[in-house]
Amino acid sequence: MSRHWIGDTLASDGLEAEFNGLSVPLEHSFELDDVAKFQLRGSLMLKTGREPSVSLNQNQLSEEDRTKLKEVAAVDGLYRIRVPRVFLQADKQTEWQTEGHLTAFVRACAMVESHLSDVITLHTDVSGYLIGVSIVTLPGACRGIEVEDEVDLEVFNTTLSIMAPVNAPGPETALFIQRMEQEFEKKGKNPQEQKSFFAKYWMYIVPLVLFLMMSGAQDQSGGGGGGGGNGGGR
Q: Where does the secretion signal sit in this chain (predicted)?
């Protein structure tokens, strides 16, 4: 199971807005030679704590970047994003130390055809570390639609969220063992042994019982006939 927190996105010409929380860069790369060269796309503002939240302040694409993105899309190249792997903890809101980066990608043509509409999800573990990032576009597939030059590819339309796991209630092991012991005590040891003995030797026990029953019936029949004859003699 997991918990989902949806964040806000803000578009501006710079990253001068102030937020109370942890600020980490969001970078992107889209190159014709498919060699990643990351540059700043925006800044993630992470409010840490028991229920973290996230906001995104993004730069607009320059005319040069818009042209390059279309060129990369035309050759079916990739659009990549990355964020630093950081620890979301309340006592580290004002500083962070990177422990590598988390990367995700989509096809550049999907970014162009969606008019820069994407969904970015940050995944954390139970201790608060960022362990993954994912990106999808809306719509999510390249349909081969030619995007006109006048289409606005300047401003990102991003939905941002944090997905954290939720601890499921663990089994009450001690209570379970206690109940099992009580059940065994109720059944008792001998009935269980008797059941096992009968299950093992029933093919011998049943014919023996039938034989004894038939023998007893014959004895009773013979005894009754003799009594009748004696009575007739009188």
A: none
